Amino acid sequence: MFAVYYNVAIPFGGTRDFADDFSWWGFSFDFRQRLVRKVALGVSFEWQGFDETTRETVTLGAVTVTGTQVREETSFPLLATGHYYLRDAPDGLLPFIGAGVGGYRVNRTLDVGPTVRFTDAEWLFGFAPEVGVSLPSSTGALILRSRFHIALEHDDIPQQMYWTFSLGGAL
What we know:
Layout: E1 2-12, H1 13-18, E2 25-36, E3 39-60, E4 63-85, E5 94-112, E6 116-136, E7 141-151, E8 160-170
Antiparallel strand pairs: 1-2, 1-8, 2-3, 3-4, 4-5, 5-6, 6-7, 7-8
């Protein structure tokens, strides 16, 4: 099964500390292959963006700056996934639970005024438990799911957490 999703997200933890606005911009691609009737393995690629505009004082290393700040963070999880379907009937709703584990590329940009830019980009290790429901049809499926992403702290980027809600279609 190949699926494409539109995602929205709520930031938590280190993600919220940097950019605390609700995210309306995200998408993901999944590929899953059933191994047995109720179990599927696959891969998932996701892109989720967060932003915030604020005016405050921030200290970055040895530099303290005050001014209007535009903060942007993008997260690119690349996950190996496993799913368990609670039903396997071809008709009606198919609820499922799942999890993903893998790498998260996190890019952060902080613009202060029109000329000062700070950037940071790191690969983090993370995981994402998931629940959802699939409504199969003769041509594919409509899927509604929710994932809670946790990417562990690495170097200058603290632990990242956000909760995505996704609506997608599968072939």
